[in-house]
Amino acid sequence: MTDATLTFRHLRVDELPKVCKLLVENWPQTYGDTGCPDFSVEYLAWLLGGPSADRHIMLGVFRNEKLIGFKDYLYRSSLHAKTDINVYIATHLTVEQNLPLSERMVVAAEMARLHVFEPDYAAYEPDALLAFFEEAKSLHKSTRLMAERQGLHIDGTLFSHSVLNPLALREAGPPSGTIRRCRPEDASTMAKLLADTGCDFRWTPGADVLWYHVSAAPSSAVFGIESDGRLTDFLACYLLDWLKNGKKTKVGVVEVVASKNSRNLAALMQAAWEHATGNGARGVMMENTSYLSPEILRNAGLMTTPRRMHATLRSKRNDINIGGSFFCDIK
Question: What is the distance between the alpha carbons of residues 183 and 223, in angstroms, rounded to a whole number?
């Protein structure tokens, strides 16, 4: 898209400060009651960097030299029904709030396109596109029609957030091994543990991608349970600055869990709690617990909150469905 004042193009990593500025100035207005990250260049560089950096896609709309619209697609190598697939997470869609209505509509229409399924992006070989919406919102009718015109299959599920009740951890009992910090040499074992989550639809990062993701996040920590010299469980968390109605807080986010033992998970959650609160966070949360059993969640001190979100999947193939439980980071 190019006219006298508007230009649509790919963004470079060195333009992340422009992206950060756009997000900081506009997301709090859009998500004031729900809250949103207090974006930083460090946070965005983590999401868009690492071994998958050449697979991620950053798109922007400029008026002259000013960024006024943004959207990115984060690559996630995944598995569905024992078949490897290429999945992208569409996220961070932003349009400057103060544009004239006619211009805002043009930019919004450009950003709403499902770019990864268009011929210009065939080299990325996408099989499916994920997006996450608050429960009160749904896939916009125009976006659904766009997907249908492109011959795409649409599926989705609701999932809940959970918060950690540290008092409940006292009743969990001892873990089956010793808790310790995970190290880079653990990454291959961690990737194997994560691949055994049991979901039909799950993110399956290789060891290098997984270790980057869990270790390069802001104020991150990775804890594991070792038994007889073998890593059996692990948890990865990081700290996130959160804005809600103009107030900033810090929260610990448990993003990746591989555990089928409630006592072990409770011990890992205790470590995450101590890491988070010891660094100024007010609590610990998990954004997606759909891949963990209710019994494990309860015994590990995790309580479901009223907040729910839609996970919406669009795919080139009718046989790819997200199902009732899935594993993928929420962005």
Answer: 9
**Residue 219: both structure tokens together:** 């104020």
Confidence of residue 164 (pLDDT cuts 50, 70, 90): very high
What is the spatial distance between Cα 115 and Cα 123, in angstroms, rounded to a whole number? 12
Query: How many Å separate Cα 126 from the centre of its chain?
Result: 18
Amino acid occupying residue 41: V
Alpha carbons 300 and 114: distance in angstroms, whole number: 39
Burial of 141 (0-12, 13-18, 19+ CB in 10 A): exposed
Of 244, 223, 268, residue with least CA distance to 30: 244
Statement: residue 138 has pLDDT above 90: no
**pLDDT at site 295:** 86
Question: Span 27-38, mean pLDDT?
Answer: 84
pLDDT at 2 over 50: no
Residue type at 162 in one-letter notation: S
Whole-angstrom distance, CA of residue 215 vs CA of residue 180: 15
Q: What's the CA gap between 146 and 261, in Å, rounded?
A: 44
Domains of the chain (ranges; CATH) run 6-159 (3.40.630.30), 160-308 (3.40.630.30)
Structure tokens at 85: 């697939």
Would you tell me the crossing angle of helices 187-194 and 207-215 to the nearest 10 degrees?
100
Q: Which residues, 6 or more positions from 87, have their beta carbon under 8 angstroms from its beta carbon?
A: 75, 76, 77, 78, 126, 127, 128, 129, 130, 203, 328
What value does the mean pLDDT take over residues 222-232?
97
| Alpha helices, H only, the chain | 16-30, 41-48, 101-112, 141-149, 187-194, 207-215, 262-278, 294-299
pTM of whole model > 0.90? yes
Window from 137-141, 221-225, 268-272 with minimum mean pLDDT: 137-141
